[in-house]
Write a structure and sequence with these properties.
The protein has 262 residues and is mainly alpha-helical. The protein has a single domain, classed as Farnesyl Diphosphate Synthase (Orthogonal Bundle), CATH 1.10.600.10. The C terminus is likely disordered. This is Heptaprenyl diphosphate synthase.
Length: 262
Amino acid sequence: MTEQIIQHTILQLKTKILEQVRHRTLRKHAGDPDLREDRLYFLLLPLLNGNRWNDEHEKSAISVAVIYSALSAHDQIKELNASSKSQQLTVLAGDYYSGLYYQMLAKLSNIELIRSLSNGIIDISEKKASVYDDVKQSFEKWMETIQTIESLSMEQFYDHFDFSMYKPFARRGLLIHRIAYELELVKQGKASRFQESLAQSEFEFGFSQTWLVLLNQELATQKNEMMEELLQSRLLSDSVQQFLVNLYGLRLNEQVSVMRER
């Protein structure tokens, strides 16, 4: 499988999802659902890497993608303090996506998967609530919180279909994306509730560095560890691995050189 085919496969899944969540008014005022490329890549990772993939896998992957869209829509409203028509419709979009993924899961009649994802959504919601409830905890705990929010549904999807070997890549990759997103907001002079939680926890606990320094260090650490995992693992095919390297801007070749010199 070439990188072009990988890209095409991701686009095909995105198109199928958009067809299922189509709602003219919501798309007009609230925009398309959040269907990030890296999440779709990880949902498709077993297929892209040559594992058996059937209709149930695909429908379940679409349901998980819609779960993330629903959670993302609700996040936007909390960040924006809903008051305008578009923000109010974004609330409805999040509720609409929530209803859709329950409907999709119900059609699958896979009670074990429904139970697992439902329990996971409760855990994710509790972690999200901690971001808004003035919870103060160590920087390491915040990283664990964010990692759960970003990757738990993906991990449950993997576990259910015996694709657990891909969990380390998804956990680290989705955390890298979130940290990079927060740092980009900082560059643009934009705040987020998560940044405020980090700042309040830094004041309360006295972090070893400022939260911003720690966040930059964490991004570099996670990228380095991702590179090491890729170098040591024979699990991913070359094209799937290279796509992941490009996706997160990893410098795999440089790391290879460094390790060979050791």
